[in-house]
Design a protein that fits this description.
This protein has two helices and eight strands, in the order H-E-E-E-E-E-E-H-E-E. The protein has helices at 2-10, 121-124, and strands at residues 24-33, 39-45, 58-63, 67-75, 78-87, 106-108, 126-128, 133-138.
């Protein structure tokens, strides 16, 4: 009986750790790249109060080429939004006109095009399940 009690007392030290959360693949295709100049910048974000100005959960910078560009992200299943812009002059910034209107081609997941204000997370929200997801964003 004492042996069994000692064994049970040690049992917590033999607990197998839980497996790391499964990752899924989010494939982002950027369409309508008009020039080979500069870079394509992609930001992947979870919900935040200041979307789209929040800190990205992941980013990619890809050399521009005419047509389309594709990038895969390994993510935990969940809700995300994607913002993309073509940094034509490669200065690391989305250049803007008066009133904050972008000068360089840009786009958001769900191909949401804001009219008078920045989009909300819910406008651009996509759900990535355990099987992954593929989306296409047209920049203009």
């Amino acid at each position: 009986m004492r042996f069994l009690m000692h064994l049970l007392a040690l049992a917590p030290s033999f607990v197998v750790p839980a497996p790391a959360s499964e990752k899924a693949t989010l494939t982002v295709t950027v369409q309508n790249v008009q020039t080979k100049k500069g870079t394509i910048r992609i930001a992947l974000m979870k919900s935040c109060a200041k979307f789209p100005e929040c800190k990205p959960d992941d980013t990619a910078i890809i050399e521009a080429k005419n047509g389309m560009i594709q990038k895969e992200f390994d993510v935990e299943p969940g809700e995300y939004a994607v913002a993309v812009y073509h940094d034509v002059n490669a200065n690391g910034t989305l250049d803007k006109r008066m009133f904050g209107i972008p000068k360089e081609p840009y786009g958001f997941s769900n191909n949401f095009r804001p009219t008078l204000s920045a989009p909300k997370f819910t406008d651009c929200k996509i759900v990535v399940g355990s099987g992954g997801k593929a989306i296409s964003i047209r920049i203009e």
